[in-house]
Amino acid sequence: TMPKEPAVLRQNILDTTAAILACGIDPKKCFLFRQSLVPEHAELAWILGCLTNMPRLLRLPQWKMKRASQNNEGTVGLLTYPVLQAADILLYKSTRVPVGEDQVLHLELAQDIAQHFNKKYGEFFPVPKAILSEL
User: Fold this and answer.
1) Is residue 112 a contact partner of residue 86, using CB atoms and an 8 Å limit?
2) 8 Å CB contact between 22 and 66
3) Domain boundaries, the chain
4) At 96, is the secondary structure helix, strand, or coil?
5) How far is CA 32 from the centre of its chain?
6) How far apart are the first and last CA of the chain?
7) In degrees rounded to 5, what are phi and psi of residue 75?
């Protein structure tokens, strides 16, 4: 949600890819791709954002904390980031999502968005459940 220098962003993408591969992820057994190259993430985020009300986003603690750290001038990207996270989850019809405690509220938002979408348009998205790690 913060602007990055293009060269730094490119290097971060390469470093993250190297770290994922170093952890043992086998690209012969799974899909490894750059999310930013898949336009459906942003497209679904737009659709879901049109179904998400502002008061719900404004109540999220992460928004309040980060906005305060930005001199109360939080960006639209920061505010709507949880909707993009919901799109990332729902696009693949995920049923289980590994999250830390700090992301439980964002997953609950994804659950609510899925339920709202399904109620309005018919059963389409599974309602994802959290897999909480103790680490």
Assistant:
1) no
2) no
3) 1-31, 34-130
4) strand
5) 17
6) 25
7) -90, 165
